[in-house]
């Protein structure tokens, strides 16, 4: 009689990566963001050619040329595709991108009320970034290394782009955000999670901001392993005019208000 297969550990090998990037009128930054993602996907393919990678750009209520930029990438690279929505919500956009990648909303089974998941969820990694951000070349490679070492979620670090940013504001930000391992920060621009953990934690909330923090809280409350690292830092926009309430731009603006007035 054949032995029953043992359940796979949390840290088992990743076979598929689904990248989700929400965008709302990001024509100015989108080209560089997609080029960086392409390099990261190429780097992973070089080391792990058997891992399938797909990128979904969720165009949320875009009125600029963002759709044309994504269409150009999708036409040239089958790993890229666009999803057009009208949510004006980062949380809803991220959740829609995950669904479009084939990872659906968790269903409850009666009467046990347990999550039902696709068999591949434990082997699928959801990597999240933003359309105003540029991931490093090792971004996906590093996330998968953590995932296969046992992490259910990876909290990466970010650095504001100094181009066009007030140097005093950048200095203040760096003082408050040292580039350390095991840092306490949560950034949607640099976040990865195993699909099975994502589903068990209820996925991204359909809210306009802080959907990343809400999901991480739910993951931790369910005792999933959450790892924070500075080893694959993402460069993100240093703009202070926020696209989402309580988002990164809002936080930078609050720091700018604490700066002393210019001399003279």
Automatic annotation (TrEMBL):
Keyword tags: Cell membrane, Glycosyltransferase, Membrane, Transferase
The main place the protein resides is: membrane
Methyltransferase among the record's keywords? no
Name the chain's protein. Glycosyltransferase
Q: Which organism is it from?
A: Arthrobacter oryzae
Tell me yes or no: is Cytoplasm among this UniProt entry's keywords. no
Locations listed in the record: Cell membrane
The record ties this protein, via InterPro entries, to:
Nucleotide-diphossugar_trans
- Superkingdom, according to UniProt? Bacteria
Task: Name any one GO molecular function.
Answer: glycosyltransferase activity
> Can you quote a single GO CC term?
plasma membrane
- TM ranges: none
């Amino acid at each position: 009689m054949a032995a029953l297969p043992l359940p796979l550990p949390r840290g088992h090998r990743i076979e598929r990566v689904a990248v989700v990037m929400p965008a709302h009128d990001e024509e100015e930054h989108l080209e560089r963001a997609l080029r960086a993602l392409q390099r990261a996907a190429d780097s992973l393919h070089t080391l792990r050619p058997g891992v399938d990678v797909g990128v979904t750009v969720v165009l949320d209520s875009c009125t600029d040329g963002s759709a044309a930029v994504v269409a150009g990438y999708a036409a040239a690279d089958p790993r890229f595709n666009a999803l057009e929505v009208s949510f004006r919500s980062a949380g809803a956009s991220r959740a829609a991108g995950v669904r479009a990648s084939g990872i659906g909303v968790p269903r409850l089974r009666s009467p046990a009320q347990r999550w039902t998941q696709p068999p591949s969820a434990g082997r699928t990694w959801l990597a999240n970034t933003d359309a105003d951000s540029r991931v490093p070349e090792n971004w996906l490679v590093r996330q998968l290394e953590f995932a296969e070492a046992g992490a259910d979620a990876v909290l990466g670090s970010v650095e504001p782009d100094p181009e066009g940013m007030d140097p005093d504001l950048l200095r203040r930000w760096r003082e408050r955000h040292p580039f350390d391992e095991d840092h306490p920060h949560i950034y949607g621009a640099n976040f990865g999670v195993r699909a099975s953990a994502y589903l068990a934690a209820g996925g991204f909330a359909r809210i306009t901001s802080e959907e990343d923090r809400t999901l991480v809280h739910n993951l931790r409350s369910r005792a999933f392993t959450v790892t924070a690292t500075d080893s694959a830092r993402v460069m993100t926009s240093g703009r202070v005019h926020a696209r989402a309430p309580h988002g990164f731009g809002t936080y930078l603006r609050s720091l700018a208000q604490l700066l002393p007035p210019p001399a003279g």
